[in-house]
Amino acid sequence: MSDCIFCKIINGEFGTKFVYENEWAVVFKDINPKAETHLLVVPRTHVESLNELDDEVLLGKLMMTVKDVTKKEGIKSYRTVINTGKDAGQEVFHLHIHILSGRIK
Ligand code: AMP
Ligand code: ZN
Description:
- The chain has 2 helices and 5 strands; from the N terminus they run αβββαββ.
- The chain is an alpha+beta fold.
- The chain has a single domain, classed as 2-Layer Sandwich (HIT family, subunit A).
- A 5-stranded antiparallel sheet has the order 1-2-3-5-4, covered by helices on one side.
- The longest helix is centred in the middle third of the chain and has 18 residues.
- The mean pLDDT is 97.
- It binds adenosine monophosphate and zinc ion.
- The site of adenosine monophosphate has 9 residues, from loops.
- Zinc ion binds next to helix 1.
C-alpha cells in the first residue's frame, strides 16, 4: 500500500535496519521504545489489522518469527502485544506484533 509507513519500511525507503527477516516478515526496532528492548514483527504483505487477517498460516509464521528472532537476539523473557483498532491504541494500520522485553519505559 503506497501511503503505508510500514510498507515503505519493508520496501527499504527509509533505510531501516532489519534485526531479522524471513520470507514472511521483517523485524525492526520500534522508533519510540516502550521497553529496554522493543521490536516490531511486520508481515511483508499489507493487512490493516488482526481484524482483516484471514490467513491463519501467516499468523503462525509471524508467531514463529517472534520465537526465532528472540532466540537469535538472546531474549529469553518477553511480552507480545497486538494492538487492534484505534481505541486499543493502534496507530499504524499495517498488522504488527510488538515484542517487549526488559525494563518498561
Ligand atoms: P501501534 O500503536 O500498535 O500501531 O504501534 C505502532 C508502533 O510503530 C509505535 O510503537 C511506533 O513507535 C512505531 N513506529 C512508528 N513509526 C515507526 C518507524 N518509522 N520506525 C519504527 N517504528 C515506528
Ligand atoms: Zn502496509
